[in-house]
Amino acid sequence: MTDDRLRMTPGPTEVPESVRQAMGKPTPNPDLEPEFFERYRSLTDKLERVYRAGDETGGDDRDVVVLGGEGILGLEAAIASLVGPGDRVLCLSNGLYGDGFSDFVENYGGEAEISEVPWREPLDGNVVADVLDRHGEFDVATMVHCETPTGSLNELEGILDVLADHDVLSIVDAVSSLGGTPVPTGKIDVCIGASQKCLSAPPGLATCAVSDRAWERMEAVDNPSLYADLEPWRTAADEEWFPYTHLSSNLYGLDAAVDLLLEEGLEDVFARHEDAAKRCRERATELGLEPYPTDETACSPTVTALSVEGRATELQQAVLEDHDILLATGLGELEDDILRIGHMGHNARVERVERTMDAIADVLG
Ligand SMILES: *Cc1c(COP(=O)(O)O)cnc(C)c1O
User: Could you tell me which residue ranges the Aminotransferase class V domain spans (predicted)?
Assistant: First the structure.
């Protein structure tokens, strides 16, 4: 395998040199040396800035915690910590990850009600208000900000307002949007991110921004899981005791990755994602390829999903073999009908999109 390969996948994304170097540095013992806790607290402070960047929801402060595990651990921990037996959970869905939340809910004894809209369309606040009126009370609602497999970004603010009016706690999977586009963190009770998407660090860490309301609910929920329990993390950094030995090298890598974002400025980072996505869609249109979401305003700035009816695997292979560029196909039933170009994190650059689209044009032509 050469290392010139361009990996335009929607995560894991390219890890910049300074992040890889930070991971190779000696680290203090995460259980015993206070310096480690200082570094962890400094990282969560910086992550709070990433979570709040461009968020105009005027929310109160959220506590950010970093868990040692892939993004899925964040999703599971949120459900395990907030949902107990018999709790009613509204799972809003317009895609695979939206549906997937209901599996976690049922594993932890909750009752999941899936409210699904067609996958080519965005989630809709009116539908949510209607479901809440017709189906009675819910304790928690789950939703996905960017549905990575279909390239849609859901506008969540209106939905989060409706949920707040009904006193329903919100859990949002922002794994593939955090650090690439503004997230309405101030209206979300548990907002989950991960290291390997727009943050451009290697897979291995999940981040959660948690509201006071959510911390309070966790005290009342009897969570059978130990590893997937958020509650101890509320005080872990201050009391200098983590529930398990933390992933020190990964944390140092994420710290360097977040430094890059803050040095560049989140506003510029977000603009870079918008520019890359816009150029990707323009080039696709020139090639006669349509984005999967029906409405362009619902297309994510972090990943573009193109409808390619039955040709995704073949195109993916040709682009890899002829141009050494890795793309992703769709997932599940849509595997062969969607070709995905990740322009997230370090890869959200117009020149990389041009190179990728030149390669797609070549294999199509
Ligand atoms: C990548 C991703 C996750 C993390 O899950 P993996 O499939 O294990 O990478 C969770 N949610 C979304 C929306 C993602 O894009």
Answer: 139-330
CATH number of the structural domain spanning residue 50: 3.40.640.10
- What is the per-residue pLDDT across 233-289, written as a single tens digit (0 to 9) for each? 999 999 999 999 999 999 999 999 999 999 999 999 999 999 999 999 999 999 999
Residue 257 lies in a domain: yes
Residue nearest to atom 8 of ligand 1 (CA): 72
d(CA 221, CA 212): 15
Distant-in-sequence, close-in-space partners of 189: CB < 8 Å, separation ≥ 6 = 82, 169, 170, 171, 210, 211, 213, 214
Shared-domain flag, residues 246 and 352: no
Query: Of 243, 263, 283, which marks where a domain is finished?
Result: 263
Out of 227, 245, 263, pick the residue that ends a domain. 263
Closest residue by CA, ligand 1 atom 12: 175
Total structural domains within the chain: 2
The percent of residues in the chain predicted with pLDDT above 90, rounded, is 96
How many angstroms separate the alpha carbon of residue 344 from the centre of ligand 1? 13
The C-alpha atoms of residue 325 and residue 310 are separated, in whole angstroms, by 20
Amino acid (one-letter) located at 33: E
pTM (2 d.p.): 0.97
The residue range of the domain holding 243 is 17-263
- List the residue whose alpha carbon is closest to atom 2 of ligand 1: 175
Please tell me whether residues 54 and 200 are part of one structural domain. yes
Residue 107 in any domain: the answer is yes
Residues with CB under 6 A from ligand 1: 11, 70-72, 97, 144, 148, 173, 175-176, 194, 197
Mutate to test the pocket of ligand 1, among 175, 300, 303 (most ligand atoms within 8 A of CB): 175
